[in-house]
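Thread: quick sanity check before group meeting

JM: Hey all, I'm pulling together slides for Thursday and realized we never actually wrote out the predicted structure for the chain we discussed last week. Dropping the sequence here so it's in one place. If anyone has concerns about the input, flag it before I start.
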Amino acid sequence: MQTEISFDQGRGRIAMVGNFTFESHREFKQATTTVLEHEGVAEVELDFDAVEYMDSAALGMLLLLNERASGRKVTLINCKGTVKSVLDIANFGKIFEIR
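JM (edit): ok, ran it. Output follows.
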C-alpha cells in the first residue's frame, strides 16, 4: 500500500492506494504519525477510494489510530465494496464516521 498525505484547514488526509493489510503497517504508522504530529490537525481523514481489500490487521491498525488520535476525530471516506462490507461487519460505524 502507498499513501499520500495532504493538509487542509485543520484536517490531515491520508489517501491510501492498494490493499490495506498487515504488510502495510509500517507505511500506515508512518503516515498517521506524520498527520498526528502536524500542528493544528483536529481531524484525520482516511481516504479508501483506491483500496479494494483490507484484512483484520487493518482493522486493528484503525483501532490503534483511534487511540493515538487522543480525541481528535477520525473519519473514513470513500469506503465501498469489500472494504465497506468489512467495516460494516465489524461495526466500525459505531467508532468512526464513515462516509
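AS: nice. The first strand starts at residue 2 and ends at 8. Helices lie at 25-37, 56-68, 81-89.
JM: adding both to the slides.
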